[in-house]
Amino acid sequence: MRWLIVGGGAREHAIALALARAGAELLVASPNANPGLERLAKASLRCEATDAERIVAFARSQSAQAVAIGPEAPLAAGVADALRAAEIPTVGPGKDGARIESSKLFCRELLARHGVAGQPRWVAPASVEEVDAQLAAFDRPLVVKPSALTAGKGVWVEGSDFTDRKDAAIYAKSILVQGGRVLFEEKLDGEEFSLMAFVTDAGIFPMPVVQDFKRAQEGDLGGNTGGMGSYSQRDHLLPFLPATDRDRALGILMRSVDALRAEGVPYRGILYGGFMLTADGPKLLEFNARFGDPEGINAVGLYEPGDFSELLLGVATGRVDPNLFQFRLRSTVLKYVVPPGYGSRVQSGGLLTLDEPAIEEEGVHVLFGSVEAAGPGTVRLGSSRGLALLGEASAIHEAGTRVEAALAHVHGTYYVRHDIGTKDDLARRREHMRSLLAPGAKPSPLPLSVAPADAPPSSAGPPEQLAH
Ligand code: AMP
Ligand code: GLY
């Protein structure tokens, strides 16, 4: 099977490695020469990931039999539509379906039209003139959210990113005057989790739940980033997330896919729900129309015993054997090695030397992101997330310890969040959730309006099939 991968980050490297393990031949289309992808690919095309015309021509000339699109921008630009029009099976929704990610306003309006529960309170000023009044009327802490894609970096949270509402007003107005849209959303308190699922004609199949670390610095300080690292737990839940809440979140995914279908938008591919587990149960922060980066790397790393190529082809065509949706019962921790200053004033161009065999000996995989080859065992850091180190073990903190040991084999000037996957950090998150649910705090009611009639059993075993 000959696969074309669109995109050049660590997530795409992880997808490519899983396909290569399943015996696939690989082609790559990306703007950057990712050293990990380049050494796997039979041929590669340097182009913008949104350049549908060149990608289709390349896929045809190289006889690609299927395409996996990694990032959101090509999905939003309709690259999957162009490939399907050329009769090449493609993993990822078309432009219409990808709006669930590319327009946060479309997403919130769609879910409101269909009464999908688990939404925070929100408003969206239609013009600059409405901003001040809407802000004044918002009587609780809020977040300011550009509607369009911002690579995870556009959201401003009251109390963290701004304290003076005047700054929020300036930010919101600056988006509106440029022709964009912006949302004010109730600021939710809780713990975040990412629930990704394969959406097929035969049902929705969840992956292990992952927690992403969005803030640039340890202790969840600093600005929002694309994600500094992530972990997943052996039972595919999280230390603070019981199966009942995972299943409620899955219900929200299912209802949302139904809402799209009811409006004539068939959705096939991967759907990623970014949730906040609050005292009132899971609330939706956003949808993504793809594997998360880094979360997809955790999930893909656990894919076994199935054939990943067969799985993705089934997702692309909509016809898939449900037995293929199985993931190992192991914990994972991923840490991104990033250039100094990433998340604020990034210093790119630094050299890293890494001893890959020694890293693998620690039981850790290296995925290449925003780096370029700079000689044997050496890479040059770009301006984004450089190397992902993925460790696996029975317990989360053991996987984290493995990644820390592997970091001893990476030399150079870089930043990494050492707190991801430590016992202390996991305890802090459990305690945070416990304090929100403590007596006196509002109890978490069952959101019966979203509980699917065919809700999965609340076991923590391998993912179950859910018809929708
Ligand atoms: P998004 O791009 O919508 O995932 O937002 C990026 C990050 O901003 C999320 O991962 C959260 O950390 C934060 N965020 C977004 N919406 C909210 C909200 N309504 N309440 C609190 N934090 C939020
Ligand atoms: N890690 C968040 C994302 O993939 O959007």
**What is the end-to-end distance?**
30 Å
CATH architecture of one domain: Alpha-Beta Complex
Number of strands: 24
Secondary-structure-based class equals: alpha+beta
Cα-atom radius of gyration: 21 Å
Brief characterization of the structure:
By secondary structure, the chain is α+β, with helices and mostly antiparallel strands.
Chain-wise SSE layout:
Layout: E1 2-6, H1 10-21, E2 25-30, H2 35-40, E3 43-46, H3 52-61, E4 66-69, H4 72-76, H5 79-85, E5 90-91, H6 95-102, H7 104-113, E6 122-123, H8 128-137, E7 142-146, E8 156-157, H9 165-177, E9 182-186, E10 191-200, E11 203-206, E12 210-212, E13 215-217, E14 221-224, E15 229-232, H10 243-262, E16 269-278, E17 281-288, H11 295-301, H12 308-317, E18 331-337, E19 351-354, H13 356-361, E20 364-368, E21 371-373, E22 378-381, E23 387-393, H14 396-407, E24 410-412, H15 423-437
Parallel strand pairs: 1-2, 1-4, 2-3, 4-5
Antiparallel strand pairs: 6-9, 7-8, 7-9, 10-11, 10-16, 12-15, 13-14, 15-18, 16-17, 18-23, 19-22, 19-24, 20-23, 21-22
Glycine is lined by residues 152, 212, 226-227, 288, 292-293, 295.
